[in-house]
Amino acid sequence: MRIAFLATAALAAACSPASTAAKADPACFTRTSEKIGGPFKLTAQNGAVMTQDDFKGRKTLVFFGFTRCPDVCPDTLFRIGTAMTLLPPGKKTPRTAFISVDPARDTPEEIARYIQSNGFPADIVGLTGTLDELQQVSDAFVAPFSRDENVDTASGYIVNHSAILYLMDENWKLESFFQPGERPQAIAACIAALS
């Protein structure tokens, strides 16, 4: 089912023009806050320790999730990948930071495999950390997460998490954010308008 959905979405994207004709939603310009996106220290998929300073100088899309997420995470990352292809020529694409909130299972190696998925953004960094480190960055983004053991799944538990996509500016300040399910065209239009 997921493969069929991704194939259909890819076909629709392939038939779309390379740039977005959509105008940015006016809310794109008012979704900012000084209270979102504080400092952090996490481990990247290559084992390197990274902080918010490593992301300064370029816009970054931040998304919290986990590699065994059945639907929201792969769908969101695929939509980001599609949105990046819809940016007008000459617009610099933001990088993507995927922060796993499943430290028990998502090792840097596991995250490295996951973010290689076809259709995900080309310029993506996967991050994880200890539970305390993840709680700190989650609090900074007001992006709560929790482990739910009361589910009948093969993996034994799922992780409930925020599905908001955050656009940080070059100085690691929240420039805008996108609600769960926001279309790639709307994401691209907002990013283009803020460039």
How does the SSE layout of this entry go?
Blueprint: H1 2-15, E1 41-44, E2 49-51, E3 60-65, H2 72-86, E4 95-100, H3 108-114, E5 124-128, H4 131-140, E6 145-148, E7 158-161, E8 165-168, E9 174-178, H5 184-194
Parallel strand pairs: 3-4, 4-5
Antiparallel strand pairs: 1-2, 1-5, 3-8, 6-7, 8-9
Helix pairs in contact: 2-5
The total number of structural domains is: 1
- N to C succession of SSEs: HEEEHEHEHEEEEH
Strand order of the largest sheet: 2-1-5-4-3-8-9
Report the principal-axis shape.
globular
CATH topology: Glutaredoxin
Largest sheet: 7 strands, mixed
Number of E strands: 9
Q: Mean of the pLDDT scores?
A: 88
What is the number of helices?
5
Q: Find the structural class using helix and strand composition.
A: alpha+beta
CATH architecture heading: 3-Layer(aba) Sandwich
Percent of residues in helices comes to 25-40%
Q: What is the radius of gyration?
A: 16 Å
Per CATH, the superfamily is: Glutaredoxin
CATH class division: Alpha Beta
Low-confidence stretches: 1-20
Give an account of the 3D structure.
The protein has 195 residues and is an alpha+beta fold. It has one domain (53-194): Glutaredoxin (3-Layer(aba) Sandwich). The chain contains 5 helices and 9 strands. It has helices at 2-15, 72-86, 108-114, 131-140, 184-194; strands spanning 41-44, 49-51, 60-65, 95-100, 124-128, 145-148, 158-161, 165-168, 174-178. The protein has a 7-stranded mixed β-sheet with strand order 2-1-5-4-3-8-9. Helix 2 packs across helix 5 (184-194). The chain is globular. It starts with a helix and ends with a helix. Mean pLDDT is 88; it is low at 1-20.
